[in-house]
Specification:
Helix 1 packs across helix 6 and helix 8 crosses helix 9. This protein is 53% helix and 13% strand. It contains ten helices and five strands, in the order ααββααβαββααααα. With 232 residues, the protein is an alpha+beta fold. Strands 2-1-5-4-3 form a five-stranded antiparallel sheet, sandwiched between helices. It folds into two domains: 164 residues, Beta-Lactamase; 56 residues, Arc Repressor Mutant, subunit A. Keywords: DNA-binding, Transcription, Transcription regulation.
Amino acid sequence: MSIMSIISQIEQSENTQEAIQIIEKLFEHNYTTIQLITNPHQILDNLFVRSTYPKTWIAEYLLNNYLKIDPIFNHITKTKEAVLWSDVPLTPESILLFDKAEKFGIGHSGYSFIHKDAVGIGSILSLNSNMEYNDWVSYIEVVKPTFEAVLPALHNKITKEFYSSSTKNPQLTSREKECLHYSSIGKSNSEVAMILSISEHTVRSYIKTIRYKLDCVTITQAVAKSIRLKII
């Protein structure tokens, strides 16, 4: 199947879950996961995931907050680069995590792609398999160009899903609400940074995300809209 046909199927799918299930029917790996990161400075508060992993493993992962020790996720968010899982150094803690995942049927072979759109929203697409190392490396070499081409479509799908209700009920994190509050009383980015003990760059990142979530061009518009929606 051509890349354009795959993209078309992704775009026509009902939601992100259906889109990644379509992916699995077309390829030979076992599991597909896509994670949306709306603000890299508050990853834990801004993670939105769709996965074909067993529901029991997803529940185990979330309930125990394994994201904090996930070596693949942490490596990618630091390097901003795609990675073959076997190339990531493991700590004793992360080795135990992989051993536990294996008990839930998760394979030891994986590859993760990363994408960042024009407004700074990022996503990570991960493929997982029980293939042996050499077979997996060969498989990735074949499918890598295709997944690099279709990832923007998957990213758009999960982004639209996450923000589908943003105009009615935007979901802001506690830190984003703090930035919005101080902006509403006339504080500059540098002043907000000083008050919250974070960098001005981080404040600007929050403000950008706030404007995106509220569908506003300026922070002044975002403040007015948030007051109208009783967010602050």
